[in-house]
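hey m, so remember when u said the tokens were messed up on ur end? i reran from scratch. heres the input so u can diff it against urs
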Amino acid sequence: HPTSLDLLYISHVERMLASVMYWTGIDMRSLGEDYEGLRQWLDAFDASEVYLGTKGDYYTHIKDIPPQYGPGFDLAPGLESVQRKLVGAEDGWG
């Protein structure tokens, strides 16, 4: 069962997952053995129907962060396709 600390941090980690994917193209769930604990933690939340009812989506996080913190900057070349998919503009939600 998640602890109070888990519940406090999951929304922040959701934002990080979306932002890192959008601005760098890195999928934090697929970083390898060094981040296995993160993947397991996220998978445990994803297995909870209660959490899935409140889970944020990448589109909302991506569109919400710039107004809060200012514009982002692409950190890797060729991100346009990934970014368009995440906001549903190119083969995203079909």
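this time it looks ok to me. The chain has five helices and no strands. if urs says something different then somethings off w ur setup not the seq
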